[in-house]
Amino acid sequence: MPSFPEKLLLAAPRGYCAGVDRAVQTVERALELHGPPVYVRKEIVHNKHVVEELRARGAVFVESENEVPQGATTVFSAHGVAPSVIANAKRRHLNTIDATCPLVTKVHREAKKFAAEGYTIVLVGHAGHEEVEGTMGEAPDHIVLIESVEDADRLEVEDPSKMAYISQTTLSVDETRAIIQRLQERFPEIVGPRTDDICYATTNRQAAVRAVAADADLVLVAGSANSSNSVRLVEACERNGTPAHLIDSAEDIQLSWLTGVSTIGLTAGASAPPAVVEEIISALSGLGPLSVSERVTTTESIRFGLPKEVRQ
Predict the structure, then answer these.
(1) CATH tag for 18-101 (out of 3.40.50.11270, 3.90.1150.10, 3.40.250.10, 3.50.50.60)
(2) CATH number for the domain whose boundaries are 7-16+200-296
(3) Sequence-ordered strand ranges (E) for the chain
(4) Which of 181, 246, 275, 284 is found 20 to 30 A from 113 (Cα to Cα)?
């Protein structure tokens, strides 16, 4: 008879962050105020469940603002957009609501400031990610994207004395630190933002999952495959030597993973809704007696106000 985990360690903090909560509420409020359809450019947050739920309520997800009928209500996702997108939406008379996370907006402001001062800006991030595309759009002639220490080694710029760095908000804290250190070694005059660009939620969830992984035989991370911060949580466990799996729901759990596992860790990416975590706990509890405890590394109290267009 197979043996199943006896202990479940929940990482805290986990799941929704303030920026995701604000973005999801923005679409919900827009639907209440304007009625469906409300168009959303790209996925509002990178989570399958959230997108499906909002779609069922009348949100229409599009790849480009060009797909939105003239004059329609359109929400920009939490990842932010380039100024060219905002200008195009204005030309098409779209009624826009910007759900960009305020911490992403901070990075956009840094990009504009450094560009205005004539810096070559090194953006540490993942090519093709919506957040990166939006940030690069703020100063396309000034920004060069790098993804690794190797990229930092190969980087050549015209004026090494006039360089700045910024980063995507959802990266691995450890990897990004290593990349920035290499940049500082190669370009001693490089300047950075006043405060770290990797957001508090990404940082806290990585610290929490490392604490759980240290005592777990296996970690499950609730999140979607296109969620950068969720993928980073899996990587944080693996770097710790603990196997980890990214799952969208309890249905993704394979019983073969649990063979020989007595302590299982569980966390959730910043865009994974609380209901998914509850469903996973319930599924694991259904396999046999399971003691559930929470490992709290920090508590979060950050809240962001909703965009003025949907405030009542």
Answers:
(1) 3.40.50.11270
(2) 3.40.1010.20
(3) 7-12, 38-41, 59-62, 73-76, 95-98, 120-124, 143-146, 163-167, 218-222, 244-247, 263-268, 291-296
(4) 181
